[in-house]
Amino acid sequence: MEVAYRELTLGIAALFNDPVTGRGGLPALDRLLHLGQYALGVPGMALSELHDSGGAGRVIAATGSADWALGRPVQPEVVTAVLRAGPTTYRVELDAIDDAASDQMVSLGSRWILLHRIDLDGRTPAMLGAFMPDDRPADPDQLAVMALLGATVGRLYSERAGLPVQHAGDDLADRELFIAVTSHELRTPVTVIKGYADTLRDHWSQLDEKARREAARVIGQRSDELARLVDRLLAASTDTAVGTLSPGPFDLVEALRHAAANLPADLRRRFRLELPERLPLAYGDRATIPNVLTELATNADKYSAREQTVVLTAGDDRRTVFFQVLDRGIGIAPEQVHQVFERFWQADSGDGRRYGGAGLGLYLVRKTIERQNGWVSLRPRDGGGTVAEVRLPRGDVKRDARASGEA
User: Fold this and answer.
1) What angle separates helix 140-158 from helix 2-17, to the nearest 10 degrees?
2) Which pairs from 263-271 meet CB under 8 Å and 24+ separation?
3) At a CB cut-off of 8 Å and minimum separation 6, what does 68 contact?
4) Do residues 260 and 298 lie in contact, with contact meaning Cβ atoms separated by under 8 Å?
5) Which H or E run includes 117?
6) DSSP states of 153-212
7) Who's near 104: CB < 8 A, 6+ residues apart?
8) What is the CA radius of gyration of the chain?
9) Would you state the pLDDT for residue 51?
10) Band of the pLDDT at 401, cuts 50, 70, 90?
11) Which among 292, 317, 283, 305 is positioned nearest to 388, based on CA atoms?
12) Running DSSP on this structure, what letter comes out for residue 334?
């Protein structure tokens, strides 16, 4: 462990001298967790950021066997169960977390969690967890590694170096931004519709049949876009956000094939399906899959060159069924992978104005999926581009849990 600890120390020093990770934020956390995983010799690590109020949180960085949990909410009862007074580094049994996460980690070779509580100014902004592969207690070297990792994370938070990554909303600012976004985003389709309608009205006799049909097509297309935008704006302005859900077991592969077949024609042409023949049933609201896929596909399309293909894949593990939308577009900066799920985030960024959009699509996707006990994440794709991943509980596991009285 002496060699690993020395390498960890040098790695942390290099992290702060690197022009990318030296600014902190998610790039620094990701690199720090990789360094810690190697130094500890564990299969995986994760860091959960806690909200200032409500006691809930979210996994914002994960490596190794824990990477499936990236973006997963941490419920208040779990935070209460694992946080305790006393030494900042201590053992947490897997049964202290929710059954789904515990079962998943056991299947991936973990036996318990070595947890480090990040304390700062009388509060706990984050929790760092190492997933231990056997039942042996942590030795002094491993405790020293966790203390060093925890101190480094604490330093990033105390200096506000790109952290926290989740920002509490300001109601007044949200209202003002809502008005600004609404007026801007509604103006474009309304202007186009009015322009083509005026052309048809004023120049009908001068237009041939092809020109009339094209004008009607554009009016119809822009009207659909306008209706969809209004729906999203209304949904995002309410607490319920996505309406009433009807969860139950369903065939995710079949739902994805059907949703992909009904994408707008311009999206369908560049979409390639690489779906398995079958997967275990998912548990959620099948009716939400078309909207979720459309938002993710639209996002991939917006930031990719026209000749590039967008790929839809799916898979499963012990507790979840998931699908991914993969593109080779401009990619996403690691420090932005959580911001993109905030309301209106895109509206005040350079890319938002360059590429358009109200910054509501991914916000509604997260709200929709999390209301089904699932979660969604974005991350850079190896070789360039972005991976958008949606995970839902397995339907067969859900039914087994209810039958045994555990749900």
Assistant:
1) 10
2) 263/293, 263/294, 263/297, 264/294, 266/301, 267/294, 267/297, 267/298, 267/301, 267/310, 270/301, 270/304, 270/306, 270/308, 270/309, 270/310, 271/297, 271/309, 271/310, 271/311, 271/312
3) 62, 104, 108, 317, 320, 391
4) no
5) strand 112-120
6) HHHHHHTTSS--SS-PPPHHHHHHHHHHHHHHHHHHHHHHHHHHHHHHHHHGGGS-HHHH
7) 68, 69, 317, 318, 319, 320
8) 24
9) 83
10) very low
11) 292
12) G
Structure confidence by residue, pLDDT tens digits, 346-360: 534 444 434 445 456
Per-residue pLDDT tens digits for 298-307: 888 888 887 8
Contacts of 1 (CB under 8 A, 6+ apart): 39, 139, 141, 142, 145
CA nearest neighbour of 70 among 79, 80, 81, 59 = 59
Token reading at 284: 């959620």
Helices 361-370/209-236 angle, 10° precision = 50
Tokens standing for residue 242: 């996505």
Nearest-CA neighbor of 156 among 254, 279, 271, 49?
A: 49
DSSP letter string, 366-406 = HHHHHTTT-EEEEEEPTTSSEEEEEEEEBHHHHHHHHHTT-
3-state secondary structure of 319: coil
Give the residue among 193, 247, 241, 240 at the shortest CA–CA distance from 220: 193
